[in-house]
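Lecture 7, part 2: worked example. A protein chain together with LP5.
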Amino acid sequence: MIHLISDLHLSPEHPEVFHQFDSYLWGLNAGEDLYILGDLFEYWLGDDAVGFLGHGEAQRLLRSLSDRGVRIFFLSGNRDFLLGEKFADECGIQLIADEHILKVGQRKVLLMHGDSLCTDDLAHQKFRAMVRSPGWQKTFLDKSIAERDGLAKLARYRSEDGKAQKSMEIMDVNPQAVREAIAHHDVEMLIHGHTHRPAIHQVECPGSAYRLVLGDWTPEPSWIRLNEEGVVLAFSDTVQRLDF
Ligand code: LP5
Ligand code: MN
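Predicted complex, written out as structure tokens:
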């Protein structure tokens, strides 16, 4: 079985989400795969700041999961794009690229965080291009943890302020960007998070494909289970199923 989650936004301020995560992970068995599609953490300042941000417990939880024989794959989101190989190695996680192709039997499924599909949100695309560039990341990571934290808090403040002024439409995925991603990778299914609008959408591009959107974990966990027989999406008190 393949399990997929995203957008937990773990932080010490919300221990209830951490406890839900812990319980959820006990439902996963050795030999199964867990794909984390970004924004596992509220924000990430670099692998040297795990203790500073209070993510030591999460690190131990992930390590014990990989030690139990569950393979963990991580694709970063717009909050935790600075999560690196050091933290991944310590947890037994394999880092994968945004736009990762997952093979399920004969099927190809495209995995993304989802923010790159929000192409109408020009302010975000500009910010994204900046912070994803290796030069910017090196300069940022060379700063002290306290300085990085100050900048991250400023970015979070500006982001919340900016979102209050943007329409829901601008902050959703752009339909043409979705069709292009599906056609470019020649897949029949795309799974992403980021928008916190869990749903199963049918996409005509021009062949028929599906776009599955994971939800966040407040107040309930959201997850996808996928195997050769079909896919199940859970969010709030809803469970939706798609048979292959
Ligand atoms: O994250 P969310 O869901 O609230 O909103 C996103 C988009 N916002 C972001 C910004 C992140 O929340 C900030 C994460 C901090 C990571 C910490 C490490 C890096 C620190 C960087 C410090 C410069 O991704 C939001 C979208 C929304 O999703 C919906 O799709 O609309 O996008 C924006 O609000 C636009 C920009 O992304 C935000 C611009 C912030 C600019 C901050 C400049 C800081 C000052 C630099 C001084 C040199
Ligand atoms: Mn996100």
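The mean pLDDT is 97. The pocket of manganese (II) ion (ligand 2) is lined by residues 38-39, 77-79, 113, 115, 194 (CB under 6 Å). Keep this in mind for problem set question 3.
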